[in-house]
Known about the structure:
Strand order of the largest sheet of chain B: 2-3-5
Low-confidence stretches of chain A: none
Strand order of the largest sheet of chain A: 1-2
Oligomer: heterodimer
Subunit structure (chain B): NDH-1 is composed of 14 different subunits. Subunits NuoA, H, J, K, L, M, N constitute the membrane sector of the complex.
Strand content of chain B: 5-15%
Largest sheet of chain A: 2 strands, antiparallel
Number of strands of chain A: 4
Largest sheet of chain B: 3 strands, antiparallel
Shape of chain A: globular
Number of strands of chain B: 5
Distance between the termini of chain A: 51 Å
CATH architecture of the domain at 62-158 in chain B: 2-Layer Sandwich
CATH topology of the domain at 62-158 in chain B: Alpha-Beta Plaits
Main location (chain B): membrane
Radius of gyration of chain B: 28 Å
Radius of gyration of chain A: 21 Å
Helix content of chain A: 55-70%
Mean pLDDT of chain A: 83
Binding site for [4Fe-4S] cluster 2 (chain B): 84, 120, 123, 126
Bound molecules: iron/sulfur cluster
Number of domains of chain A: 1
Structural class of chain B: alpha+beta
Distance between the termini of chain B: 73 Å
Mean pLDDT of chain B: 85
Order of helices and strands of chain A: EEHHHEEHHHHHHHHH
Structural class of chain A: mainly alpha
Cofactor (chain B): [4Fe-4S] cluster
Organism (chain B): Chitinophaga solisilvae
Helix content of chain B: 10-25%
Number of helices of chain A: 12
Amino acid sequence: xxxLSIDWFFIIEKILLISAVLxxxxxxxxxxxxxxxxxxxxxxxxLGPNRAGPMGLLQPLADGxxxxxxxxxxxxxSNPFLFILGPSIAMVVACMTSAVIPWGDTLTIAGxxxxxxxxxxxxxxxxxxxxxxxxxxxxxxxxxxxxxxxSLLASVRAASQIISYELPMGLALIAxxxxxxxxxxxxxxxxxxxxxWNVVYQPLGFFIFLICAFAECNRTPFDLPEAENELNGGxxxxxxxxxxxxxxxxxxxxxxxxxxxxxxxxxxxxxxxYMDSLGLSPNMISxxxxxxxxxxxxxxxxxxMWVRWTIPxxxxxxxxxxxxxxxxxxxxxxxxxTGGVVLLRQH
Amino acid sequence: MQALTxxxxxxxxxPMTFMEKLYVPAIAKGMGITLKHLFQRKATxxxxxxxxxxxxxxxxxxxxxxxxxxxxxxxxCGLCAVACPAEAITMEAAERKTGExxxxxxxxxxxxxxxxxxxxxxxxxxxxxxxxxxxxxxETFAPSNYQRKGFIYGKDDxxxxxxxxxx
Lengths: 347, 167
Ligand code: SF4
Ligand code: SF4
């Protein structure tokens, strides 16, 4: 159907896909809060939430409902516009990243080939980089607008932490780019489909990326912007009701997205072993591929939680030392070695 | 410096070795420990469904006892209130009138007898102090309540049912 030289099916298809991806990230984020509490409980020899619904599965709904009904407080001395802008940025930015992740191969429905990726931009990785670093604005603006010394400290911490860890992250990715020769996430996955997963070639790069992902998501051991016991909750100290919920929620969405990213870039994305020799129909393979990516992502999310309940928070100087004196040199070395090997192989 | 006790342990102040400086082995070890705990038996008792067994000497809510004929044993001597370290017991004594012999065993009885369960520390001294075997600690504990005054237990809460009439 083409009307006014616009392919309307294409638009409908994309809208559906975008909604599906959004709903998926929101639901996963919602149930990550449940998962987080369960994992925390199990690690501490407790049972965790088990009263709301079977196995406590309705707990996220109860929490969300509670947050909605909480009193909305905007501090008198704050800047109301920025105060509301903070959590909004955090949320929007967190949801935006999912656009370039290839959630699966193509599906063929009624003769149309539908790509399970919202936008296969050829600069996928750069896009993610740009958007993720915007995320810190949410924290900074929110912390600044609260007009509270703890929040301000938290936003300063968040800014410098994210700048410091973006560098090694970028350097680790450059090594990956040299190897794959493309910035498109889809192509990176396609290469891994026919070859070994990238983590085999880039173990150090993956490790650096993993550490930086923790820092970018403000997860323990790098949760200094939140730091309940020194900053009273940091940048969301003054927030209540759903604005607080948005901040917390954005963190979980970020975690989901970075898990999906790591799975995509280093662990084959929707590719799984023997996928092309199973003899199944392409649609079936695509769906299985999506399931594979989803499982990998969930494993990473579990890893995030597992680390959170194991390792205590870094001190601020330790954080900076790790970032600048350890990770950046390591990432540089990794980049140089990869470059050398790639050059050698070309000759 | 001489140690004050023989339990003192010197702090290891040797510089960290390379492996220790890497942190990663230590972190991996920690992750192993938490992973082990993930599958261990949980310490939680799911309370309303499952109840933890009390020890045989558990001291729970008090009961005021009656004798075989259903008469109250307490004679309002006040020894329990004196023994109580938390000063949780209040009582008012009254004289038994003729015709009340089937209600009270002694000539003097407690017209009002209150225990404040928020003050009580369930030490059981009242039980030990009582010369008339009138107060005993049972095997339940005070249920929750919305108000403080709900925790002041009067005679109707404490007295056990009459063995004859069942009331
Ligand atoms: S149990 Fe102890 S604290 Fe409680 S009423 Fe008896 S003597 Fe007082
Ligand atoms: S309960 Fe026992 S100790 Fe207390 S007043 Fe009555 S008889 Fe005396």
